[in-house]
Amino acid sequence: MNITVIGSGFGGLTAAIRLQAQGINVTILEKRDKPGGRAYVYEQDGFTFDGGPTIITAPWLIHELFEMCGKRTQDYVELVPIDPFYNVRFEDGSIFRYNGKREEVLREIRAMNPADEKGYLKFFEKTKDIFKTGFDLIDQPFTHVTDMLKVLPDLVRLQSQRSVAGFVNSYIKDERLRQVFSFHPLLVGGNPFQTTSIYALIHKLEQEWGVWFAMGGTGSLVKAFVRLFEDLGGKIELNSEVRSISINPTTKRTNGVWTATQNGDTFRPADAVVSNADVAWTYLNLIEPRYRKHNTDSAIKRKKYSMSLFVVYFGTDKQYPDMAHHEILMGPRYKGLVTDIFKHHKLSDDFSLYLHRPTATDPSLAPKGCDSWYVLSPVPHLKSGTDWKKQAPLYRDAIMQYLEQRYMPNLRKHIVSEQYIDPLHFEGTLNSYLGSAFSVEPILTQSAWFRPHNKSEDIANLYFVGAGTHPGAGLPGVMSSGKIVARQISREL
Predict the structure, then answer these.
(1) Domain 307-428 top-level CATH class
(2) Residue 118: burial class (beta carbons within 10 Å; 0-12, 13-18, 19+)
(3) Is the pTM value of this prediction over 0.85?
(4) Nearest to 328 by CA among 352, 350, 311, 307
(5) Quick one: DSSP state of residue 469?
(6) Backbone phi and psi for residue 473, each to the nearest 5 degrees, phi listed first
(7) Number of other residues whose CB lies within 10 A of the CB of residue 6
(8) pLDDT along the chain (493 residues), means of 10
(9) Overall fold of domain 100-210
(10) Which of 13, 155, 226, 340 is geometrically suited to a Cys-Cys bond with 160, CB 3.0 to 4.6 A?
């Protein structure tokens, strides 16, 4: 049996490794010159920049993958814990140092608002129940409506129709603390004021199992997965862009894919195809409409899609030791800003930022005495109509000026290496519909059975992994989608 996987993100790599470990012949076709998908790595001027995800949670999912192949994680990659998980900084100068140590978290809460300590403890107890329910479902497929009906009582009991922010706000009163404990949906492409409260499980996940970093950057975790896959006999082909998924008109099943080469398109036969490409992009661009009675163009375009990102990767010839590995820089507005991004699709003048300084943990990612960074700003997807060719340099300058004025003195004088990506990059390079950075938005009506299925309703041997399918974005989510699909294929084929 031969399986083709389109794309080498963490979802595709997880599915490929699990299938290859079962003795199935798997080939990964990757459009770009390096594996990783959104976890691409940029290397320039002696600096290493992780292009995408940098926050590793649920480390047992990584260990489980290596163990099922008879291997040890530590023989492929070194994972180290981060403390603090994040510094959350506010414009009034206050800082919440957020980690997994109960007494330290409570001390930080008391410093901001002692009256919220009891509310936080009640909130945390509630996240335990949410976590158990949520993680029991994370690697279970929702292929049939009956799968949804089975879990409906739990979703009702947990009041999953509430948003994460609504859930947090019912326990905590201080506005800054409300932001500290509700911003996590933004890390997986969600609006805290719309994302189902099930995503509050992220707080429990981090508190119990920590936040981790792969020495060498997230790219070293990609390399570890690729090496494991190849050690098992799998093949990965770079610079191999899939142009279309071939469908047998009689059986309505895929029999392979067409890839672009210098000598024209080449047909690659396969017994099944796993797409780690963006779900919407796959349906709209790789499969003829006549084979999509369920996933029609209009059905795909009716869905709500997550925000995009503007990310500047930069290296400095000096270090800023006061900045932690992960910094969350809250701007002057919270709900208003995310409403502009998600509802109005408007690029605002203000912003909240995620600042990543991996050299705080691994100095090898920059020349000696230097720091490697990226700063990320959530922005609306391309429905905003923003002319990013004109706007990007201006937006970059505004971000750098903000960082310099508030947190990093003389920053612009010390930048010695730089590049940025914007929504056009997500659309054009990463083939993401509307330039969305996280695909389908994680709201209740687009979760579980309501989310694009891991197995296509239209084509019986076409499967989906990655952020746009169940269970969703984030490293635990996309790896779990790979686990679901590998299990489905082994059972069905």
Answers:
(1) alpha beta
(2) exposed
(3) yes
(4) 352
(5) S
(6) -80, 175
(7) 26
(8) 97 98 97 96 98 94 97 98 98 97 97 98 93 78 71 69 94 98 96 93 94 98 98 97 97 96 86 98 98 97 98 98 98 97 96 98 98 98 97 98 97 98 98 98 90 96 97 95 97 85
(9) Guanine Nucleotide Dissociation Inhibitor; domain 1 (1.10.405)
(10) 155
